[in-house]
Design a protein that fits this description.
two-stranded antiparallel sheet, 15 helices, about 350 residues, Rossmann fold, alpha/beta
Length: about 350
């Protein structure tokens, strides 16, 4: 893979007023579920829950996005290690164009280096483009062209207990960023969010259905879908970085391995380093008219941090749900907290 940065992108503003009106009318007919944030209700669509502001982009890409066989989609549910996967993939794929000192990741917010399909940041394709794209869209909701093109997919998931806690913190932070007059009591509590999450009502949820869709597809098409677990990557980062590079089509050479290139990229893309990059500490990211502080995307990144927020009973309850939903799939999330 020989690529450079940046490539042409088509932003949400490219969506015609006629298309917007069509999608907005359809979204207006969908049921609404309040609870996670007063900014937006959740709407059910094709078996999953979406915020209307993102669902418009999902519908548009389903209708118009034309995937190319050379595309590689980085897929995930929210708060499962998306920024880390983006940083690793970007650094691996562009390592012949940039060394760490001049990497766009030094001056550009991590999520802006690889655009999101469902945020309307890359609605359609015209002309040369960066082959790495990202999405939170469930497998069954991907644009038909993605499946038909045979392009590659990298999927990352995470222990649902850590996913829930990270999502809860993020939604509360995003709400504060956009509605300044809110009081603490106006924000969703841990208990309220937990009840909704366990019912499958969360952004891009049910979480277990999201995971199962990509897991099942990876079993059917292992040559096209690389399925990753955050916890495994944390334990054996070098091994998975090599595997990711091979899957992206730009494997590390023996010379690069001996020269420490893999470790150099791993350290550069680590939570400790990226969270201290100035743009990630002080910048503000805009998605579909909503503002979120960049630092909200870099909270802790720790395996097992859920133990600091959930009771043992709550953890066991989530484990049982996942076991029931993924029964017979061969996929488990039995992990110990990171020391």
């Amino acid at each position: 893979m020989e690529i450079s940065f940046p490539f042409q992108t088509n932003l949400a503003s490219d969506i015609s007023s006629e298309s917007r009106e069509k999608y907005q009318k359809l979204i207006a007919t969908l049921p609404k579920e309040n609870g996670w944030t007063p900014m937006q209700p959740l709407c059910p669509y094709q078996g999953f829950w979406f915020f209307p502001m993102f669902l418009e982009g999902v519908m548009y890409t389903q209708d118009h996005f034309q995937a190319q066989s050379t595309d590689i989609l980085l897929c995930s549910s929210m708060k499962t290690g998306t920024a880390w996967l983006k940083a690793l993939s970007f650094s691996i794929a562009t390592r012949t164009q940039f060394n760490n000192s001049i990497s766009p990741l030094q001056t550009t917010f991590t999520h802006e280096c690889i655009p999101f399909l469902d945020y309307g940041e890359y609605a359609a394709s015209q002309g040369p483009r960066f082959p790495l794209l990202a999405t939170h869209v469930p497998y069954t909701c991907l644009p038909k062209s993605v499946i038909d093109s045979g392009c590659k997919i990298v999927y990352i998931c995470r222990d649902p207990k850590d996913n829930f806690v990270s999502l809860w913190h993020f939604v509360r932070t995003a709400t504060r960023n956009n509605i300044k007059e809110l009081k603490e009591g106006d924000l969703i509590s841990m208990e309220e969010a937990f009840e909704l999450y366990c019912k499958g009502i969360s952004l891009y949820g049910p979480y277990w259905e999201h995971v199962w869709g990509y897991w099942n597809a990876s079993l059917e098409h292992p040559e096209k879908i690389l399925f990753l677990k955050y916890e495994d990557m944390m334990k054996e980062t070098e091994s998975y970085a090599k595997r990711l590079a091979e899957f992206l089509g730009c494997p590390f050479s023996l010379e690069e391995e001996r020269g420490g290139k893999i470790q150099e990229i791993i350290q550069f893309c680590s939570f400790e380093n990226l969270s201290n990059v100035e743009v990630n500490k002080t910048g503000i990211h805009q998605a579909q008219g909503r503002l979120v502080e960049n630092k909200a995307y870099f909270r802790k990144g720790k395996v097992g941090d859920w133990r600091n927020y959930l009771t043992a009973e709550m953890g066991e309850h989530l484990d049982k749900i996942m076991e029931q939903k993924l029964s017979g799939s061969g996929l488990t999330f039995s992990v110990s907290p990171q020391e």
